Amino acid sequence: MSVPVLEVQDLTVEYVSDERAVRGADRVSFTIHSGEIFGLAGESGCGKSTIANSIMRLLKDPARISNGKVLFDGTDVLGMDEAALRAWRWNNVAMVFQSAMNSLNPVTRIGEQFIDVIRTHRGGTRAAALHRAHELLKMVRIDPVRLRAYPHQLSGGQRQRIVIAMACALNPRLLILDEPTTALDVVVQQEILEQIRELQNELGFAILFITHDMSLMLELSDRIGIMYGGRIVELAPATTLRHGSRHPYTQALLGAFPPLHGPRVKLTGLAEGTKFTNIQDLEDTGEGHWVAPSDQPVLSQGELL
Amino acid sequence: MTSTAIQRTAVGPAVRIRSLSKSFTSSALFSRKKIPALRDIDLEMQRGEIVALVGESGSGKSTLARCLALLETPDSGEVLVNGKDIAGLKGAAVRKYRSEVQMVFQDPFGSLNPTFRVEHILERALALHQPEIKSKRSEMAKLVSTVGLSPDVLSSFPHELSGGQRQRIAIARVLAAKPSIILADEPTSMLDVSVRIGVLNLLHKLRDEHGITILYVTHDLASARYLSDRIAVLNEGRIVESGESVQLLDHPSHPYTQLLVGAVPDPDRDSSFDAPKRAALREQIQRWSTSANLQKHIIDESSQHWVLADESEMT
Ligand SMILES: Nc1ncnc2c1ncn2[C@@H]1O[C@H](COP(=O)(O)OP(=O)(O)OP(=O)(O)O)[C@@H](O)[C@H]1O
Ligand SMILES: Nc1ncnc2c1ncn2[C@@H]1O[C@H](COP(=O)(O)OP(=O)(O)OP(=O)(O)O)[C@@H](O)[C@H]1O
Ligand SMILES: [Mg+2]
Ligand SMILES: [Mg+2]
């Protein structure tokens, strides 16, 4: 395979305050190759956004990267100075934040925000930037007249789509999407992701895709890392994970879907009180499938509602 | 307390919405284009009923919930809650209404005040809505554990929490108000399945044990089917189909509902989607929704399943 666009090695991030210290990410390693979609899934609070923010160098106090490396095309991201970071962000890597719905400037029209991003990082005329903004809005299925709208005049999902479009504006080599579609119905979600996939085929950029939606993740990603409590507990190609997951947490994630047909069955999610502690390093089980050993039994479920 | 008791035993539905419409004017410079967010909505919710509102992004789901929460004023139509027209509420009556009818907002990043610790946010809700509670501390610990968090989060600021943790604090705040109606706008969109099931089961329990009426806004059809008694499908501001959840999803009749059902991610599907089939459905949706003579047609009487369509589509 090609050279990795992104390498995360042994990354550990801590949030330290007077009252407590939380390990946001704990010795996390993975690589993403160019043209690859890497999915990161896991329970709420397990450290997905922490990893994304570390890669972007956007962690703020009291966060501290206490160990590990982030390499982009072999360049040490954690060592970049402010000027290098500014040139690198947007042009090489763009991120859609989990708070995308809330991350647009409330007092500036959408169109101006596009023009601003495009011209600051790529230059060119206003007209060219506006033209590009039109194209991008169509890509996310929003009427370009809406370029005149202010963020509060758009629905939650419309705002999310605007931010996705903006992140694609400069054709970055790596696109980080942190829960980009929480407010989108399945139809729009699928079509946008399809668009992104097409763009990706065309331009060959890599994607780090964070979501809790396992069915979406399995459909979209090439390889997937499953996280729990700051650690990766399983890492495998999507096709392997679908039918051959080995870690009980992964199995719980895959087994807790309410079905769309058949009888309504009461589900329990991860059984009350089930916790995984002291998670071991991943072990290679062959064919790119890595699993952290665990002695927890798999949960049982299925009483009728 | 007594008035609530009386209201809860009063006859009639908890919520009755009649021909509600709401449009926004877009701010385009020269053309003042009207965006119809809601068109002629009729919706009834019985006490203790869970109704899911599903539909595409921008179809008006949040606007409908916000009208019920007195955050938007409808252009026309009527909203009766516990038999009372909410348009006429003033002063103290508005405050009382707001504690009876609580909303979980779509965006957990925007809806929690960033300058307060979680404990302050919950304490205020308790003081406002349940002043009789003496030991606020233990009540707060109970609230956060109900939504699957440890009491540690009480001393955190919202920005120190992950997306899903914030979403659960927003739910805990609503529970602190002991409402009789909950408007939940995508309350679990950032939760992983195992936690999400916990929250859905919690909502279910609130309904079973306290008879709380719930409007559940979501784009997740599977969770709508799991939680709700009835589903209403919103398309471009209109309710185009409604009925008992299982029946409706087993027999989707409106092409828009068919489109939604067909697009639910399925990891075992090989190609992503069937483009020609989808284009055909879209064409059909367009034809259905522009018909001049839309009427409700009963699909199944016993499950109150109906679809909004032109006579000619029904043969
Ligand atoms: N600024 C902060 N200060 C203290 N703790 C923090 C801070 N930011 C995050 N954390 C903690 O770090 C852990 C990981 O958070 P993170 O936001 O990375 O989770 P996540 O996997 O993105 O979760 P979600 O799916 O709910 O968004 C959580 O327990 C969170 O409470
Ligand atoms: N304050 C406003 N000014 C102008 N237009 C608005 C305003 N609020 C909402 N709209 C428009 O009304 C329509 C319905 O919006 P609403 O937020 O109800 O959609 P929604 O169904 O909740 O969508 P989503 O699933 O994306 O959150 C959208 O086209 C939106 O752009
Ligand atoms: Mg997150
Ligand atoms: Mg909405």
Give short descriptive properties of this protein.
heterodimer; A: 305 residues; alpha/beta; Rossmann fold; 2 domains; eight-stranded mixed sheet; 14 strands; globular; B: 315 residues; four-stranded antiparallel sheet; 11 helices; 24% strand; disordered N terminus; binds adenosine-5'-triphosphate; binds magnesium ion
Task: List the topology elements.
The complex is a heterodimer of chains A (305) and B (315).
Chain A lengths: L3 E13 L4 E13 L3 E6 L5 H8 L7 E10 L2 E2 L5 H7 L4 E4 L13 H13 L3 H14 L16 H13 L5 E5 L7 H18 L2 E5 L3 H7 L2 E6 L2 E7 H7 L3 H8 L9 E2 L16 E2 L5 E2 L11 E2 L1
Parallel strand pairs in A: 3-8, 3-9, 6-7, 7-8
Antiparallel strand pairs in A: 1-2, 1-4, 4-5, 9-10, 10-13, 11-14, 12-13
Chain B lengths: L1 H8 L5 E11 L8 E12 L4 E6 L5 H8 L7 E6 L2 E2 L5 H10 E4 L13 H12 L6 H11 L16 H14 L4 E5 L7 H18 L2 E5 L3 H7 L2 E6 L2 E7 H6 L4 H9 L11 H16 L3 E7 L4 E6 L5
Parallel strand pairs in B: 3-8, 3-9, 6-7, 7-8
Antiparallel strand pairs in B: 1-2, 1-4, 4-5, 9-10, 10-12, 11-12
Helix pairs in contact in B: 4-6, 5-6, 10-11
Bound molecules: adenosine-5'-triphosphate (2 copies) and magnesium ion (2 copies).
Polypeptide structure, described:
- The complex is a heterodimer of chains A (305) and B (315).
- Chain A is of the alpha/beta class and 305 residues long.
- Chain A is built from nine helices and 14 strands.
- Chain A has two domains: 32-58 and 87-92 and 174-305, 3-Layer(aba) Sandwich (Rossmann fold), CATH 3.40.50; 100-171, no CATH class.
- Chain A has helices at 48-55, 82-88, 110-122, 126-139, 156-168, 186-203, 214-220, 238-244, 248-255, and strands at 4-16, 21-33, 37-42, 63-72, 75-76, 93-96, 174-178, 206-210, 223-228, 231-237, 265-266, 283-284, 290-291, 303-304.
- In chain A, strands 6-7-8-3-9-10-13-12 form an eight-stranded mixed β-sheet, sandwiched between helices. A four-stranded antiparallel β-sheet of chain A has the order 2-1-4-5, with helices on one face.
- In chain A, a hairpin with a 2-residue loop joins strand 4 (63-72) and strand 5.
- The longest helix of chain A is centred in the middle third of the chain and has 18 residues, at 186-203.
- In chain B, helix 4 runs parallel beside helix 6.
- Chain B has helices at residues 2-9, 61-68, 91-100, 118-129, 136-146, 163-176, 193-210, 221-227, 245-250, 255-263, 275-290; strands at residues 15-25, 34-45, 50-55, 76-81, 84-85, 101-104, 181-185, 213-217, 230-235, 238-244, 294-300, 305-310.
- Chain B is 38% helix and 24% strand.
- Chain B is built from eleven helices and twelve strands.
- The model of chain B is unreliable at 1-9 (pLDDT under 50).
- With 315 residues, chain B is of the alpha/beta class.
- The chains are: A alpha/beta (305), B alpha/beta (315).
- Chains A and B meet through helix 5, helix 6 and helix 7 of A and helix 6, helix 7, helix 8, helix 9 and helix 10 of B.
- Bound molecules: adenosine-5'-triphosphate (2 copies) and magnesium ion (2 copies).
- One adenosine-5'-triphosphate (ATP) sits between chains B (24, 35, 37, 55, 57-63, 106) and A (152-158, 183).
